[in-house]
Amino acid sequence: MNKVFAHAMEALHDVSDGATLMLGGFGLCGIPENSIAALVEKGVSGLTCISNNAGVDDFGLGLLLQRRQIKKMLSSYVGENAEFERQLLSGELEVDLIPQGTLATRIQMAGMGIPAFFTPAGVGTEIAEGKETRTFDGKTYLMELALHADFALVKAWKGDRYGNLVFRKATRNFSTSMARAGNITIAEVEELVEPGMLDPDEIHVPGIYVHRIFQGTGYEKRIERRTLAKAQV
Q1: Are 206 and 159 in contact (CB under 8 A)?
Q2: Could you tell me what percentage of the chain is helix, strand and coil, using 3-state DSSP and rounding each to the nearest 5?
Q3: Is residue 52 part of a domain?
Q4: SMART domains, alphabetically (predicted)?
Q5: Which range marks the domain in which residue 211 is found?
Q6: Phi, psi (5° rounding) for residue 20?
Q7: Can you give the three-state secondary structure of 109-150, one letter per residue?
Q8: Looking at CB atoms within 10 Å, which of 32, 70, 79, 155 has the fewest?
Q9: pLDDT tens by residue, 136-164
Q10: What is the model's pTM?
């Protein structure tokens, strides 16, 4: 099976209106920049996007929000995007805010084939409305369902033609779990290498989970919020 595609547009050829997408990244760290740009160019709409956050106004998922391509967001943190806030408050955008640990675990469970799990996060809040609860050892827990997607879009540091992926430092974030949870996983990599060039002990996502892979270009790797230490006098 040939998993290698020439570029993002070719790899995302069947992403259509109404699709549910998982997009790796934490803030702007490790986001699939080329895949997002391809979605913007394709003009697909009515998307449901699962991501820890919604990018910023002019970068990342913020580009899709600007063009009204996203119908619904499932996220944990959305405080850096003014357009997201505007669409939410005006009723233009459906939003499920999910505790960050719950979001990560729902994705992990999907990749592991576990349909649901129980967590104390959200008990007694709006998060719990309509959800089953159980008591264990005198403590109440919510049942949360595993979170699946039509497509998982992730960005790795290196990958080979079999789809084995290596991430660099914090870029691993949500991507390693999402790669296992998508019905179709599309990986963009900074460097596409031949099989056998990756150390098996360094592979973070085995190729069995990855359906398509391409080498990305022109990464900005923008820093969302730069913090500098004051010089010592």
Answers
A1: no
A2: 25, 30, 45
A3: yes
A4: CoA_trans (SM00882)
A5: 8-114+146-215
A6: -105, 125
A7: HHHHCCCEEEECCCCCCHHHCCCCEEEECCEEEEEEECCCEE
A8: 79
A9: 999 999 999 999 999 999 999 999 999 99
A10: 0.94
